[in-house]
Amino acid sequence: MIRSFLTLALTLLLPLSARAQTPSQSQSDDRLASDPLLRTYPLLSFPPLGVRARQKFFDAVPQFRAATAEYREGISLGRDLSKPLKTIEKLIEPLREYFIGVNASAEPVDLSSLQQLPLKDLLWETLTTAETVDNNLQVAFRAVQQSERDGVMDIKVLQFFSEIQDDLTRLRYLTSKIRKY
Question: Are 109 and 167 in contact (CB under 8 A)?
Fold first, then answer.
């Protein structure tokens, strides 16, 4: 009985409160509903990164691909690897910064299996990891473009970014270890 009374009262009072709004309130409500920049997005919307951070990411992906190709060529032809290693090391940071900026949290990486590798194995492990990162960055590049169009980043994409961060941590360790030789 009381529930039906409250329902009836709310049904009657809500239209009255809507009419009591001032014209400026209803106009601002209409503008809020129609302007995509003023609407709120779901919880998984990515935090606004600066144009600079996204641009660094977009610039780093093709540069990383070129550095990986140069490193691959250097290993197969026995050339000096210091330049491609330095380039790869330099590109790791902007990539990691972007992934951290979109809240793709990475787990700590166990590097103990890499500590006892001889130089030859270290070189090949670095190449394998760099190629894996490169291939994953190509997919990530398209995912970032898609998320910018949609305004939302899928949770699976964030998990994928976390995996890339793990590989970047491994790659940073490997390149620093090679440079010590």
Answer: no
Gap between the Cα atoms of 104 and 155, Å rounded: 9
Residue holding tokens 């190449």?
A: 127
pLDDT tens, per residue, the chain with 181 residues: 444 434 444 444 444 444 444 444 444 445 445 555 444 444 444 455 567 888 999 999 999 999 999 999 999 999 999 999 999 999 999 999 999 888 888 889 999 999 999 999 999 999 999 999 999 999 999 999 999 899 888 999 999 999 999 999 999 999 999 988 8
Q: Where are the alpha helices (DSSP H) in 35-81?
A: 51-77
Distance of CA 159 to the CA centre of its chain: 9
| pTM for this predicted structure | 0.71
First to last CA, the chain: 84
Geometric angle at alpha carbon 91, from 90 and 95, rounded to 5° = 135
CB 161 within 8 A of CB 140: yes
d(CA 84, CA 72): 9
**Structure tokens of 28?**
């601002």
- 131 close to 72: Cβ distance less than 8 angstroms: yes
